[in-house]
Specification:
With about 180 residues, the protein is α+β, with helices and mostly antiparallel strands. About 45% of the residues lie in helices and about 20% in strands. The protein contains 7 helices and 6 strands, in the order H-H-H-E-E-E-H-E-E-H-E-H-H. A 3-stranded antiparallel beta sheet has the order 1-2-3. A 3-stranded antiparallel beta sheet has the order 4-5-6. The radius of gyration is 28 Å and the shape is elongated. It starts with a helix and ends with a helix.
């Protein structure tokens, strides 16, 4: 009934051509039987039956497949059930997620190779969370979670004032921002 301009761009197909064909034309062949079953169950129950792994795919007019996300609704009309499906092309999102995973993996390898570690300090709860690498590199049997006071007790006396000053700087900034 309707194939808007966003759908035309997404699928590379004019609305005139799209409305002259079956919806299956926009679903890769290997998913068509499964899709028909999903639509049938959705029509009967009104509930969305998603793919088990969340992977839905569309196919463009040129034959290339692409990942999609879909939201569907239905309404009973005098002429029968009408389904509305809103489809989003999530190709770019998937690419960004993959790039982020790859970047995280590279960072993890660099941290391991450089024998580096990280601590995170939550000033509100005064909790320091040590990374597993920190515990391993320092050879400590201390908890992965600690407080600023406990950390200061572990630091050599000659370095304690510098670390206290470091922490104090955060309190100054915090009060400045909120004040």
């Amino acid at each position: 009934m309707l194939f808007n301009s966003a759908a035309e761009r997404m699928f590379g197909c004019t609305a005139d051509k799209a409305l002259q064909t079956r919806i299956d034309r926009f679903i890769p062949g290997r998913f068509r039987t499964q899709h028909a079953a999903h639509v049938r169950r959705f029509g009967e129950s009104g509930g969305m039956d998603r793919a088990a792994d969340g992977a839905l795919w569309g196919i463009r007019a040129n034959g290339t497949e692409f990942p999609i996300e879909a939201s569907a609704s239905q309404a009973d009309t005098k002429s029968g059930k009408v389904f509305t499906v809103i489809i989003r092309d999530i190709t770019e999102r998937r690419w960004i997620e993959g790039a982020r995973r790859q970047s995280d993996e590279r960072l993890h390898l660099a941290v391991q190779a450089g024998r580096m570690y990280a601590d995170e300090w939550d000033a509100a709860s005064d909790t320091i969370t040590r990374s597993p690498e920190c515990v391993e590199i320092l050879g400590t049997d201390r908890s992965v979670r600690t407080t600023r006071r406990e950390l200061l007790q572990q630091v050599h006396g000659d370095d304690r004032a510098q670390l206290e000053s470091f922490f104090a700087g955060f309190y100054i900034r915090k009060s400045y921002i909120s004040g």
